[in-house]
């Protein structure tokens, strides 16, 4: 576990937990690490929710597919970030998402029941872990409401601009990279890819933005 300390220090789940305590805690929680190739399914829709996932290297994508086979991208999870925690905490019998590796990645899995039910060792840092988990869930709820705001917009243009403005605020800059290619961005915004490309082209012609693959630059000031 020591080789992963550098990335684990960046994980919100382990905020204010010292390195020595973290190693002890991970052993106590029975944390395990798996390696996945690009495009490999890390978690499958319909399976029982039990584990919290932490990306140690690489990245994964959270997707959902409707009855007709239409894919929607819910989020992109980078190194040091957590996924599936809400479903694991709720002990969901059938998770409604699929987690796919964007690239070769290493994932740490922790049985959520080991977090929510304190062990017989009465570790003093376990309460901090539970507090961190609750805060992480609250932060994810805020991001969920942001996506609802994006999807509530009527047109592809409005959805795209709202998403880009959220990204600009996140990075504190008018120039930034997004984690999606064009098809993935269309799936995230739940719009047609060709229509999205048309709108990006129009916004470039109007002098509102510049774009190059995953890089965008807004040419108006975001407050």
Features:
Jelly Rolls, 23% strand, Arc Repressor Mutant, subunit A, 8 helices, alpha+beta, 223 residues, single chain, 11 strands, four-stranded antiparallel β-sheet
What's this entry about, in short?
This protein is α+β, with helices and mostly antiparallel strands and 223 residues long. It contains 8 helices and 11 strands.
Q: Care to describe what's here?
A:
The protein is α+β, with helices and mostly antiparallel strands and 223 residues long. It folds into two domains: 2-149, Jelly Rolls, CATH 2.60.120.10; 153-218, Winged helix-like DNA-binding domain superfamily/Winged helix DNA-binding domain (Arc Repressor Mutant, subunit A, Orthogonal Bundle). The protein has eight helices and eleven strands. A four-stranded antiparallel beta sheet has the order 1-8-3-6. A four-stranded antiparallel beta sheet has the order 2-7-4-5. A three-stranded antiparallel beta sheet has the order 9-11-10. The longest helix has 26 residues, at 126-151. The chain is elongated, with a radius of gyration of 19 Å. The termini are far apart. The model has no long low-confidence stretch (mean pLDDT 92).
Domain unit count: 2
* pLDDT averaged over residues: 92
Measured as a percent range, the helix fraction is: 25-40%
The low-pLDDT segments are: none
User: In the CATH scheme, what's the topology name of the largest domain?
Assistant: Jelly Rolls
CATH class of the largest domain reads Mainly Beta
Radius of gyration: 19 Å
Q: What is the level-2 CATH architecture name of the largest domain? A: Sandwich
Please report the number of helical segments: 8
- Tell me the structural class: alpha+beta
Strand order of the largest sheet: 1-8-3-6
Query: What is the tally of beta strands?
Result: 11
Distance between the termini: 42 Å
The portion of residues forming beta strands comes to 15-25%
The CATH H-level superfamily of the largest domain is Jelly Rolls
Largest sheet: 4 strands, antiparallel
